[in-house]
Design a protein that fits this description.
By secondary structure, the protein is mainly α. It contains eleven helices and two strands; from the N terminus they run ααββααααααααα. It has a two-stranded antiparallel sheet. The radius of gyration is 31 Å and the shape is rod-shaped. Pfam families: MerR (PF00376).
Length: 243
């Protein structure tokens, strides 16, 4: 018994176009033809098409199928690679589901990086925008440090003072605010110091542009001063006194 191209396609659950494409790339052997020129597909062709369909359903690419042949070790190697890729995909999708679960809660917002919804309420629009940019420039570990610091200082007076700082703030106000912010950035004085150091010049330039676009000149001056203070040596405690 033999089948036409249309019949073999229907039997294997694929399209005629797909059958022809498999011929073009050498994945399916050409069948014999009748005297009238029509193809005569046999059982071996149906089996091959069903094998290809099963493998593609498992995520095996056509190039991989063509290279697999009958070598069992080679086939197993391909399956292990696909399984590893699938594991990573599942992990990524599970992460997406966790994020969607958070975002589906009342009050949740999508304009902060993953993990920051717990502190989103205390952030203003420019803070959220900066965090989104920073999440692309810095490591997950660095962003986790930022999140922990924000959680440790929810809506405190220092945050409000910085956010409300007018562009024409005087010298004394700027310096006092910088001295209050500096301990949060200093590894010697903070439990979770915010020390974000760009790893490339491009990241440094992007971070600088973001800061200039989102904060006024007085706020930027305070940040520069606080950063300079953290570069100074930490004073030694007098002898006999606890640190």
């Amino acid at each position: 018994m033999s089948w036409s191209t249309r019949e073999i396609a229907e039997l294997s659950g694929i399209t005629v176009k797909t059958v022809r494409y498999y011929h073009e790339i050498g994945l399916l052997e050409e069948p014999d033809r009748k005297s009238n020129g029509y193809k005569q597909y046999e059982v071996r062709h149906l089996v091959r098409l069903l094998q290809i369909k099963r493998l593609t359903g498992l995520g095996v690419g056509l190039t991989q199928i063509a290279a697999m042949g009958t070598d069992l070790d080679g086939q197993a190697s391909v399956f292990r690679v696909i399984d590893t890729e699938l594991e990573a995909t599942i992990e990524r999708l599970q992460g997406i589901r966790r994020e969607l679960a958070v975002l589906s809660q009342p009050g949740a917002v999508p304009d902060v990086p993953p993990g920051f919804n717990g502190v989103a309420e205390q952030l203003r629009d420019n803070d959220r925008a900066l965090l989104m940019i920073y999440s692309q420039l810095f490591s997950d570990e660095s962003m986790e440090t930022v999140r922990q610091t924000l959680e440790a200082h929810p809506n405190d007076a220092l945050d409000e003072a910085f956010r409300d700082l007018p562009e024409d703030a005087d010298e004394v106000t700027r310096q006092a605010l910088a001295e209050q912010l500096a301990p949060l950035m200093n590894p010697a004085t903070a439990a979770n110091p915010v020390t974000l150091e760009p790893q490339t010049e491009a990241a440094r330039a992007t971070a600088g542009q973001a800061l200039q676009a989102l904060y006024n000149s007085a706020q930027l001056d305070v940040l520069r001063r606080a950063h300079q203070i953290t570069r100074l040596p930490v004073p030694e405690a007098p002898s006999g006194e606890s640190r």
